[in-house]
Amino acid sequence: MAAAPESATSTPSELGQLIKKLDWVYPFQPATMCSAKQSATALPRLAEHRTADETQQMFQFVPAALSPRRRRFQPSRDGLSAADVGVAYHKFFHLMDFAAAKGRETLIAEADRMEAANFLTAAERKALDVTAVLAFWQSEIGQKVLAHSRYAHREIPFTLRCTVDDLKAAGVSAGAQLAGDEFFIVRGVVDLAIILQKEIWLLDFKTDALTPEEVASARQRYTPQLRIYVQALSRIYRRPATEIYLHFLTLNRTEKLPYQT
């Protein structure tokens, strides 16, 4: 008659190893709760004064299936949202012939040309304030851009590897205690840059409906975004961005930001 098999037993050492495995915690747990990719245009609201929990929630990863619907902008009387109007201006500045900047009539003709070529919809064409566009080109910075238009690059897309320290340098708190060798991917598009042999001038257009009293807070809000642009272009082209500008079209006001390496 065959002997019954011996019951399996574990030694104290084996039990200790098993308990150690079951109690193991992934050492980079905060990284699993953070979105690995951010938009540069989202950085201004990330830089606002928020609690650590609020900032963490903004960086938190949410699966697409569980993500809430994006907020819809309320349409204006012409059927365009404020965001749509911003897109119209950016398309115009991106595609316009610099030669059209010499006067009001040439700008009107350029806008009409873009509508006829289906680069602008009828609603987008109507939303353009040619007076505001002309005022920019006649301003000191506008004339400076035109004088160096051969070096102008418009709507420059970039993907930037940003460490937590990079984001902090831009004025953004990542909210998670990530390890020093971890990073976020930030994507964005630079409106206009003059890329010279030894330096870069960077310009960003804003179409916010502002009062003069609101400019200071808007400047503070958008500064982190521009600092990320500076980091991106400086690394890509290996030269410093020595002049950084925000231009508010509705006020015909250009704000120069401090030079930052």
How many domain modules? 2
Total number of β-strand segments? Answer: 6
**Total helical segments:** 11
Beta-strand percentage range: 15-25%
Low-pLDDT segments, ≥5 res:
49-75
- Percent helix, as a range, is 40-55%
Net shape: elongated
Mean pLDDT across residues: 81
Termini separation comes to: 86 Å
CATH architecture of the largest domain: Alpha-Beta Complex
String of helices and strands: HHEHHHHHHHEHEEHEE
What would you note in describing this structure?
- The protein contains 11 helices and 6 strands.
- With 261 residues, the protein is α/β, with parallel strands linked by helices.
- Strands 1, 2, 3, 4, 5 and 6 form a 6-stranded mixed beta sheet that branches.
- The protein is elongated.
- About 10% of the residues have low confidence.
